[in-house]
TrEMBL record:
This is Tripartite-type tricarboxylate transporter, receptor component TctC. The keyword GTP-binding does not apply. Gene3D superfamilies: Bordetella uptake gene, domain 1, Periplasmic binding protein-like II. Belongs to the UPF0065 (bug) family. It comes from Falsiroseomonas stagni DSM 19981. Keywords: Receptor. The lineage of its organism: Bacteria, Pseudomonadati, Pseudomonadota, Alphaproteobacteria, Acetobacterales.
Amino acid sequence: MLARRSLLLAAPALATIPIGDRALAQSWPSRPISIVVPFPPGGSNDLLARPLAAKLQQALGGHPVVVENRGGAGGTVGAAQVARSAPDGHTLMWGHVGTLAVNPFIYPNIPYDVLRDFAPVALVATLPGVLAIHPSVPARTTAEFIALAKARPGTLEYGSAGNGSASHITMASFCDAAGIDLIHVPYRGNGPMLTDLLAGRLKVAFAGAPVVLPAVRDRLLVALGMSASRPSASIPGINPVAEALPGYEMVQWHGLVAPAATPPAIIARINEAVNGQLGDPELQQRLVMEGADAAPRTPDAFRQLIASELERFRGLITRAGIRAD
């Protein structure tokens, strides 16, 4: 479970770095900083990374911070390139829960080891999913839906943006925790999935707020709950699924990682700059517009999150038999 300790863990990290290493950090950056988003332009990763990059550039006195999209194989192509980059703090990756904690278990022969090849730098944001149903489904709460699914095992269909996608993983974790059996219907992206959900050809989906909330506001879909364990600024007025399913939480998370041998002093300086910008109201509002909540952490706390999520998804993906397309 992703603990909510943002303010406590966002304290400046440079205080723990030896004086000699701090001098190394002061000479950084010496050329433009590249944030590699290992997905095509226009997706949620890209839309979250770009405003953060702009704010980071401001924090660094106008030093260029550019976003580069290097998509392919669910993020593994770009991730492998970053893992092989010079560990000097000038190449970072926009790390996503899928790239760092899910892909190692759904792609065969993945070309990187997450804990060995990357140094966590800064957690940036978390994105809860929304459990949404077609209005024809006779349930109006999460508890009612779970009861319905248990009474009709293997008959209700849920959609996702594809095998191994965030919407697939989130619903699989919900079914696993609730002890229910739903039929998975994978699509190629959120668009066609949403079309069939609105038409009633699908009955339920666990999708990001920007995907389903407009239809919820227009009363075309019904939101039963959301996947964070506590109320979220990005999804106001929707209760946590955990109220009906104690202990349940499954949020997407996004952050920055660097090649493994990047000096700790440079990592600490980037972390401090990012965490400082996450308190900016303008950036927080941009994140909320994308269904995300700011989530500053220290590098060590981010590393602990990645390690715990790797163990969590190892078990879930094995039990659910999830494989990438």
